[in-house]
Design goal:
The complex is a heterodimer of chains A (about 450) and B (about 625). With about 450 residues, chain A is α/β, with parallel strands linked by helices. Chain A has 15 helices and 13 strands. In chain A, β4 and β5 form a beta hairpin. Chain B has about 625 residues and is of the alpha+beta class. In chain B, about 35% of the residues lie in helices and about 20% in strands. Chain B contains 20 helices and 25 strands. A six-stranded antiparallel beta sheet of chain B has the order 16-17-18-19-15-20, with no helix packed on it. In chain B, strands 1, 8, 9, 10 and 22 form a five-stranded mixed beta sheet that branches. Chain B is globular and about 85 Å long. The chains are: A alpha/beta (about 450), B alpha+beta (about 625).
């Protein structure tokens, strides 16, 4: 629990605006941004209250996340009267989320609802007469977030976090009893056992992150790829979804030679759709490259949207494509139903038994809404309820689990370096502490209780 | 017949480990002090185990010493075996422990008290606190003894240990008695109740004492002391003396059978005991009942001193009747013919609810009344002494009108101990454990002087000579770390050979010696082989240099955590805040905060029932109040 650490949040409304802003406030704001910003000038040499062009780079893999404008504002002449950095980036949920995650990884924490305002008040920036209002806001927000916390607590996430945490509490109790009662004939903890348990916890946490599909989708979106024989309407679909002419659309088969991608928002889920060159046997070298890329795109996608031509029917080539898709999540669009006979359509439907399909006409805008619904259904099993509260909670949880995993890695590294037990325990306690921040439990009492109930001690 | 017997600035009630430290600190700081004991032959008694230190407790003793207390020095004078525990488990949990000659410890401490300037030592039972009402404030003004003597005073420190309304229980027999057959203090509790002090009833126990001549040690494992002795006191550089051994034996199925057959006769199971006992200190019948799968429990046989045949039987604390005690002890290898000198017993006593205290150990509602030690719900000699020292110092600071001494959780185990007791309260006798300290890598026993001696010096309990030595040690540590930072080891044949001999990765270019020392396989002393300019330093300096360099990363991480922690500790809360008037606080939080009157926002956040949202509201309230001023 701390009120004076550095906080960060996306400060523009969610949705796909032209520009998104991430605001960071607190004593470490500059330190955090310095690690991820590369511009003409070093960040620490930038003057206060200026706007500067540069790039946000992931310091681990050196990948550029986005080109940005960064405003650096030194306290006290800022909104919160703390050091503030604002990162203006190219909007888009995915980019914003990625940058925010990076900022959190580097030491900021997600802000609570209304926290920037609260800080502005606490630091005397906001008029005294607004004090009552702020208290109300905070109480209201707290109620809301505690409601959210309760519903999460009852959920699977909390259950799993608790499982992982319980293993840690037992482990910590065992370590503590080993160090606090050195002369008792209790089984001393071994580094092998620590390793076994901690790896076990790491697996569970990775599972949580993996299985935490809803949150993941909201943060990162879905990678979808459109495949199908040439001229089946793939580019038209992408254009229709994106609402602008991005891909070149012609009647000539094979026009889309390269991968074209677009972010679209379907029922609140960001979907990154990749249009591919038509998958077909070809001798044109330019197109071969495109086709290879297509295969790769399919392998990497979480969702494949396959299009077939209702008029032409389900061809051998379509079978080859279907086979290539394998076990991926799949939605087939039987396109151009406006020009096909009902019989032609139902023949294709026969062949798609057991597969999700939608009858569409992109040109006539038929069936597109169903696509969004089906994607939501496929990825969230109907659970999706996109409001900002879920977003915030999830980002916080993800960031805590990330920190927990990173502390586990510290434990494993310390073990390899033969560090003594008391130092290793520092990181194990951190892991339990991060998880406790999700479930709202504190360690010290739990461990003490565990020590006395599990081990026989005394004089 | 009541009579005026004299006037003191500070009165200490009870001369156990807490009382001795409190009285010595007060008198040494120039304050006229008196210490009372029901029996002067029981000064600094150890009615339970004859040892000082151990995990976390050893840390407390080092901290007491670093602040200028007496326990460490007295232990160094009187121990008969010394050991470092947890050697392999890391620097944060290395712990010193000594078996002491109990009687010698007492007589040495008594001598120190007797010789102390400004201090009077008196045998008497204090039965009543005299508290005056001055403008609605309760202020202590004196104490009365059983024999009618009235002493006027400005401060009282209660260090009554387990004596208040003490009751001893052995099986189905129970009687009014203090520990070790000494008189109980049956009256003072009533005086406390009259002044609306909330009392709790706790329980603890001790095993039997046996005659050494009746024990066959050949059937037990010998547990000798360490060859190299590390003294408790930072003022003591080296000790050499002969040590005596402890012995280890085990209970078996026969022992457990006897216990199970007689369990109905145990006072604990028969409902004769109402006090709450410590979980970490269960009786043998408790262990056998709760841990059914365990086929045997270890039992240590420890000498009570050099001039006595009495041996302490650690692990066999019990409240079973005398006949069962003897029967079960005789099943232990080596105790077949045992002759018991003192029976095991359980003891119940009154203590106060420590949440009535400030972090200074003064009562929130009674000016000048302090309490320390087992009366505050703690357990253990070391825990008691630590509180005694702090209470003594704070009584003096109060009299002098100076800022009180409050150690926080990042400064010492003493800070953790007092904060836990006062902020969270306790439901059983509280024992210090290293796991209770959040920042234990910083709170090591080896650096207690670096953490606390400057504070002890400011208070006035550190001699000039000692402080100069301390500053010199500190300078040497800093200088040597700087030197290691600057010295470069080049990839010469000598260095490569040195690294190979220690299975350490060879270097291809120059590297700071400091970075070599960070490698687990390289010890500080071994560096002499490649570092010709290495200075001659004491063991203590080398130890600090080595730990500081080797665990630098971890230490830095804990220091960042401390920085975060301190921010809320620094936000002080005025005693006059009426939490009922703060809009937005939940009802439970209002009640708790009004009851506790925490001293800082940090302390408030540790009170159970006060949520993070309440703390937000509190911070806003503080800001509003500040702006109004």
């Amino acid at each position: 629990m701390n009120f004076e650490d550095t906080i960060a949040a996306i400060s523009t409304p969610s949705g796909t605006g032209g520009i998104g802003i991430i605001r960071i406030s607190g004593s470490r704001a500059f330190e955090v941004v310095e690690k991820i910003f590369i511009g003409k000038k070093d960040f620490n040499k930038i003057k206060s209250h200026t706007i500067n062009y540069g790039k946000i780079i992931d310091p681990v893999n050196k990948i550029t996340i986005d080109e940005v404008l960064v405003s650096k504002m030194k306290k006290p002449n800022t909104f919160t009267r703390e050091d503030i950095v604002e990162i203006n980036c190219h909007g888009g949920m995915v980019v914003l989320k990625n940058i925010l995650e990076l900022v959190l990884k580097e030491g900021a924490r997600p802000s609570e609802p209304g926290e920037f305002t609260k800080r502005a008040f606490l630091n005397g920036r906001i008029d005294l007469s607004q004090a009552e209002a702020v208290i109300d806001i905070i109480n209201a927000k707290t109620d809301e977030s505690s409601k959210a916390a309760v519903s999460q607590l009852e959920g699977k996430l909390s259950q799993k976090v608790k499982e992982a945490r319980n293993i840690l509490i037992e482990l910590i109790a065992h370590i503590e009893v080993t160090v606090d009662y050195p002369e008792h004939d209790i089984e001393e903890i071994t580094s092998k056992k620590i390793r076994y348990e901690i790896v076990n916890v790491k697996k569970k946490l990775l599972d949580i992150i993996k299985g935490f599909e809803r949150g993941k989708i909201i943060r990162e979106g879905i990678d979808a790829v459109i495949v199908g024989r040439p001229n089946v309407g793939k580019s038209s679909l992408l254009n229709e979804l994106a609402g602008k002419n991005r891909a070149i659309v012609t009647d000539i088969p094979g026009t889309t030679r390269d991968i074209i991608e677009e972010y679209v928002n379907l029922n609140g889920i960001p979907v990154r759709i990749i249009d591919t060159a038509g998958i077909r046997e070809t001798e044109d070298t330019v197109e071969i490259i495109g086709v290879e890329k297509t295969h790769k795109a399919v392998d990497e996608a979480q969702l494949v949207i396959m299009m077939v031509d209702a008029k032409i029917g389900f061809t051998d080539e379509d079978y080859v494509i279907l086979k290539r898709i394998g076990n991926k999540k799949l939605i087939v669009l039987i396109n151009k139903i406006d020009v096909a006979s009902p019989q032609e359509v139902s023949e294709i439907e026969e062949k798609l038994k057991g597969i999700n399909y939608i009858k569409t006409s992109i040109i006539q805008e038929i069936g597109l809404n169903q696509l969004g619904d089906m994607i939501t259904e496929l990825f969230t099993k109907g659970e999706i309820n996109l409001n900002s509260e879920v977003l915030i909670t999830n980002t916080r949880h993800k960031s805590l689990i990330d920190k927990a995993i990173s502390s586990i890695d510290d434990v494993l590294e310390a073990q390899e370096n033969d560090m003594p037990l008391d130092l290793i325990s520092i990181d194990i306690v951190s892991v339990a502490d991060y998880l406790g921040q999700i479930t709202g439990e504190s360690i010290s009492e739990d461990v003490t209780h565990e020590i006395f109930s599990r081990f026989c001690l005394g004089k | 017949m009541e009579f005026f017997a004299g006037e003191y600035e500070v009165v200490v009630i009870g001369a156990g480990h807490a009382g001795c430290e409190a009285a010595l600190a007060s008198a040494r700081l120039g304050i006229k002090t008196v210490i009372f004991s029901i029996n002067l032959d029981s000064i600094a008694n150890m009615p339970c185990n004859p040892n000082i230190g151990g995990t976390a407790k050893g840390h407390l003793v080092r901290e007491i010493d670093a602040l200028g207390g007496e326990m460490g020095k007295n232990t160094d004078k009187t121990f008969i075996q010394s050991k470092i525990l947890n050697r392999a488990k890391g620097p944060a949990v290395f712990s010193l422990r000594a078996q002491v000659d109990r009687r010698l410890y007492q007589s040495e401490m008594k001598g120190v008290l007797e010789l102390q300037e400004n201090l009077d030592v008196k045998q008497a039972e204090v039965t009543e606190l005299i508290i005056e009402d001055v403008d609605g404030r309760k202020i202590i003004s004196g104490v009365k003894t059983f024999t009618g003597a009235f002493y006027k005073c400005k401060c009282v420190i209660m260090t009554t240990g387990t004596y208040l309304k003490a009751k001893i229980i052995i099986g189905d027999i129970s009687y009014s008695s203090g520990p070790d057959g000494l008189f109980p203090a049956n009256k003072l509790s009533d005086s406390l109740k009259e002044h609306n002090i909330e009392l709790l009833r706790f329980k603890t126990g001790t095993p039997a004492r046996l005659n050494k001549r009746s024990i066959d040690f050949s059937k037990m494992e010998e547990q000798p002391g360490d060859e190299v002795i590390v003294p408790f006191s930072f003022e003591c550089e080296e000790i050499k003396k002969d040590q005596v051994s402890c012995y280890l034996t085990y209970t078996n199925s026969e022992t457990h059978k006897i216990i199970k057959q007689n369990i109905h006769r145990s006072a604990l199971f028969g409902g004769l005991i109402e006090g709450i006992g410590p979980r970490y200190c269960p009786s043998i019948e408790d262990k056998v009942t709760r841990f059914k799968d365990k086929e045997s429990h270890q039992v240590f046989v420890e000498p009570m001193g050099l001039n006595t045949q009495e041996m302490y039987l650690q692990g066999m604390s019990t409240s079973l009747p005398e006949d069962v005690q003897i029967e079960m002890m005789k099943t232990l290898p080596g105790l077949e013919n045992v002759s018991v000198m003192r029976n095991a017993y359980a003891i119940e006593y009154d203590c106060i609810n420590p949440t009535q205290l400030k972090l200074t150990l003064e009562f929130k509602n009674i000016d000048g009344l302090f309490s320390a030690g087992q009366i505050n719900g703690s357990s253990g000699y070391e825990e008691a002494a630590a509180q005694g020292l702090i209470a003594g110092i704070n009584a003096v600071l109060k009299l002098k009108g100076e800022e009180p001494l409050i150690l926080d959780r990042s400064q010492g185990y003493i800070g953790v101990l007092i904060d836990d007791l006062v902020t969270k309260g306790t439901e059983e006798p509280y024992r210090m454990m290293t796991s209770r300290a959040e920042y234990r890598l910083l709170l090591r026993q080896d650096n207690a002087d670096l953490r606390l001696t400057p504070i002890g010096n400011t208070v006035g309990l550190i001699s000039k000579e000692r402080y100069l030595k301390f500053e010199e040690k500190k300078r040497q540590i800093e200088e040597e770390i700087k030197r290691l930072e600057k010295t470069i080891a080049s990839p010469s044949d000598k260095v490569i050979k040195f690294l190979n001999s220690r299975n350490s990765t060879p270097i291809s270019s120059g590297i700071k010696i400091k970075d070599l020392l960070k490698r687990p396989e390289i010890s500080y002393d071994s560096l002499t082989e490649i570092d010709e300019k290495m200075p001659q330093l004491s063991f203590q300096v080398k130890e600090q240099v080595s730990i500081t360099v080797k665990y630098e990363g971890y230490i830095k991480r804990q220091m960042i955590q401390v920085e975060q922690f301190k921010k809320l500790e620094k936000r002080k809360l005025n005693k006059n805040i009426n939490y009922d008037e703060i809009k937005g606080l939940r009802l439970e939080a209002r009640q708790k905060l009004n009851k506790f009157k925490p001293e800082s926002v940090g302390q408030a956040s540790r009170i159970s029932g006060v949520s993070p949202a309440d703390i937000s509201v509190l911070l806003i309230y503080l800001e509003t109040a500040r702006n109004k001023e």
